Batch of 2 targets.
Target 1
Amino acid sequence: MLLEVENLTKKFGGLIAVDDVFLEIRKETITGLIGPNGSGKTTLLNCINGFYVPENGTIRYKDKLIQGMKPHQIANAGIGRTFQVPRIFKRMTIIENLMAPVLDSELPDSSLREKALEYLERVNMAELKDSLGDELSGGQQKLLEYVRLLMFDPDMVLLDEPFSGVHPVLKSMFHNEILRLREMGKTFILVSHDLVSVYTLSEEIIVLDLGKVIARGKPEDIKYDDRVIEAYLGR
Ligand SMILES: Nc1ncnc2c1ncn2[C@@H]1O[C@H](COP(=O)(O)OP(=O)(O)OP(=O)(O)O)[C@@H](O)[C@H]1O
Ligand SMILES: [Mg+2]
């Protein structure tokens, strides 16, 4: 397994946001993580990438315990992520946004720039390279974050609501990008309320409700699972 999460629990005061969660993620897969608002999806990603230290449980990446490590150490170990609310540098140009996280890389600036431009082209944003972060639309910010994370070349990618506000045409291109990178050996956890995208892209889906895994399985099984429908419709 590439990533193994066991007995993971994260609390905020009296609230159990992630409740005894188990996950096993194989290399070169796309796992959908779905569930109603407040079910613990973002908190689970925050535990995996080191933003939160869980109260209980273990997280192993490539057979190494990573919980307790700092976010930048986990990023260096090969886990990249995007945020539900994009965190881009608003006063920097798009190309600077892409270069910023890799400035200490051994690669020369020119090849980093080339890589950044190539990725921008892939998401149809090459003309925006000299625009400021501020000038991007919501959907463009989502795409920029995704492209920025690829600059690190992570093996595992955690995506938190990547498609929200992204135009349908760009969205299907984004789907293809994710599938292409999976073919190239990358592994994804995809958090999204866009269930059609999740059902289309994922080979396995995990459903959270009130911090607990209430169902897991193939898209065709999850789609019609009564527990899942009930969780979404409200109790
Ligand atoms: N930093 C925090 N401090 C206190 N409570 C928090 C914090 N972050 C999340 N929570 C709570 O933990 C629970 C899980 O929140 P989380 O953001 O993980 O849900 P989510 O599944 O990502 O929801 P959404 O689909 O709305 O993004 C919620 O009840 C939320 O209010
Ligand atoms: Mg969330």
Target 2
Amino acid sequence: MLIGRVALVTGAASGIGRAVARAFAAEGAAVHAVDVAADRLAAVIGELESEGLTATRWAADVSDPAQVERVVAHVLDAGGRIDCLANIAGVISSEPIEEVSLAEWDRILGINLRGTFLCARAVVPAMKGQGSGSIINVSSRAGAMGFAGMTAYCASKFGVEGLSRALAQELAPHGIAVNTITPGTPVHTAMSETTYRAEQRKIWQDPAVIAPAFVHLALQGPNGLHDRYVNAWELTRELQTEARP
Ligand SMILES: NC(=O)c1ccc[n+]([C@@H]2O[C@H](COP(=O)([O-])OP(=O)(O)OC[C@H]3O[C@@H](n4cnc5c(N)ncnc54)[C@H](O)[C@@H]3O)[C@@H](O)[C@H]2O)c1
């Protein structure tokens, strides 16, 4: 359970972020849901409320330092602490390198990598002050291997891996766990609508199926799961096996 914990979830208006915000709220966390898509975010919060769950919404662009700092300042004003940051906001594009414009390269890296850095940088002082925290950075198989036509996306996710490995070393002495996570199974989201092949579409599932892995990571400190590239599907299955009588 996440009762009494404050969680900041980016990319909460869709897909994996929406599923994680919902799972965190259902586990009792005070959820602060961030997304650049203000209208979709409002609709998601409305859905949660119709289920008796609550979350506070923040329309913000994670690649903009001023907006990120503003959201974190408000969250700290409201609750005095941040226990978990789930960096889930992300974008993808696919084209041969000679067609990747500088603007597109900067957009993908700006949201996926710079956004992850900015959100982590903004919450770390509070987490250090508390002596605890968990940072969950969404990576991808594209953070571990190359995919043709996805130079910017792979570069951004390999960057998230590097950022996270360094942060894990830096923050462990302060009681803060840092992990990366990849879905590990086909999930049906707005992003995968644009990227999945026909075979994956046959077996894709609602991203809620991998949300338990995020809940588990939210509870970790550096002496637990820490500095790992976590497969969400495998971790969720392990947790379900452990929970069986
Ligand atoms: N879908 C997959 O199969 C898959 C696989 C591996 C990794 N991922 C990663 O999971 C994460 C979530 O992807 P998804 O599939 O749920 O996609 P999605 O498109 O359904 O959701 C992404 C969310 O991020 C938000 N967002 C985009 N730019 C933003 C910005 N500048 N500031 C704030 N929010 C912003 C979008 O508005 C959207 O709500 C991404 O980081 C993605 O790279 C997805």
